[in-house]
Structures are given as C-alpha cells and as structure tokens.
Amino acid sequence: MGRGARGEGRGRALASMGKRDPSSPVSRPLPRALRGTRIGIIGAGKMGQALIKGLLAQGLSRRFLRAADASPKTRREVRRRFHLHVSDCAIEVVRQSEIIILAVRPQQFPELLEELAPVIMRPQLVISIAAGITLRWLKQRLPGIPLVRVMPNLPATVGSGFSVITLGPLATARHRAIARSLFGAVGEVCELPERYFDALTAVSGSGPAYVFFLVQTWEEAARALGLPAAIATQAIRQTLEGSTHLLRESPEGASVLVEQVASKGGTTEAALQVLAHRRVQRYLVEAIMAAAKRSKTLAWG
After folding, report:
1. Does domain 32-198 correspond to CATH entry 3.40.50.410?
2. Is the dihedral of CA 39, 42, 47, 52 positive or negative?
3. What is the largest CA-CA distance in the chain?
C-alpha cells in the first residue's frame, strides 16, 4: 500500500469518527428538572424506547429509570438495546417512580388505569402520550393527580421529534419544566392549550406520513425516468434533507424559496404548473383537515 492510499484511509477513518449516528439523539447535559428524579415508563414500544434512548443520551442514570411492558419480546429488546431492567408489572414501576409516563396504545388505557389508579398517589406526576386521551378523561380516573398530556411524533425515535404539551389544572411550573425536559430529550417542544391538539395531530402528528408519501411518489417518478434505484434514493433524500435545512436557516418563507428555484419558463415552473392544474395544494389542505376532523371523532372525554 502506498503512502497516498494510507493517507486516504486515515482521512476516511477520521471522517467517520466525526459523524454522528443520525438515529441517535444529540447528547445534552441532563436538565436540572430531571436530576435525581425517578422516572417510570409504562409501555416500552417505539415512543417509550425513544424516551429511554434520549434520556440515557442526556446522562440520566439507569438507576433513576424504570420501564414496564406486557410483551416479552419488547422487554428483551429494551434489555438488549439499553441494558435497562424492564418489568412485566406496571404496578411495580409506578410504586418506584415519581414521574409516570403512560406510553401504551389508547385502547389499553381503560384497563391500565383501572389497575394503576389505586397505587398512583400525589405528588406523583402522570404524563400521557396517547392520541385522543384528553385531560378530562384522565382527570376522571385519576382525581387529585397532577397531569400532563403530550403529543409527540414519530421523528422523536431519532431525536428529531416535535412534541406539544398541555398541563392539567393541578400541574405546576415544576411539572412544566419536567415535561419540557423529558421531551426535549427527543426533539423540540412547545406548549399549547388542549383545544389545539386536534389541529396539531393533523399537522405534526400525522405530518411525517405526508412527507413519506411525497418521497414514495418522488421515487416512483425517478424510476419512471430511468434513474438507478440507489441513485434516485440518494438524490431524493439528500435533496429533502438539504431543502429542510435551507428552510430552517433561511429568513425567507417557503413561498419565496419556491420562487428562487422556479425560474420563468424553466423545468421547475413546468412541474409546478401541473401541480396547480391538478389542484394538488387544495387536496393537501383537504387531507389535513380530514385528519383534524378524525382526531376530534376519536377523542376520549
């Protein structure tokens, strides 16, 4: 091997060392609100594991973190991935925790809360991330308990989520800081009154599916144009990532950026004219409105 080849090899190795695994949350110092606080996660599926991953990345000690899940397969997966004890008994985890995060499916809530309500005591904080489970519904089953409702989205599983929080009437400023810190471990957080949750469900909760649908359609067009599948995938995903980064960094809005790409009489203008003729924008708005309407229909309480 020549000197140049060895140099290239060292350069590639150093470059790879500097790259962060995109599926890993960015490591930040553990927020003060979470220090020394015992956290229990009931339901260790995708979102439960996202929280475990994000909290451990921030430096939360495993001795302050507990999880429970009914599935033996899920328990084995969590033990393998995070070296964390996972119980099959939710009551056990609740009794050991100051903060209880309910991360099971909405249809499991009635049975779960019937089991847990007798052992949940103030000053424990209960945080629900289930779609459609309202604070009113939770309050009826957990009277006197501070409650926070959170709506995260799927990109939280790679540390790039968007979570909306709303506080119940007994939740305090400290509880707000805890909820923000927990979900800040997996992305960005904002606080809104609960009346906005159906709209946010349609916009950010369902939002990743709109993006994936667009990419799926984009890839079909690329194949129809004869591009090799691997190149098409690389081109589309990098274009998407770069465009999102540009949108975030640019002081201009999306409409101005569209104009910057679409020169008069050019290829982009030809594509946009087809979309306008087919009224794609109108149908996208209708689709998002339909998601919000369905969210209202599915809400409990």
Report:
1. no
2. positive
3. 74
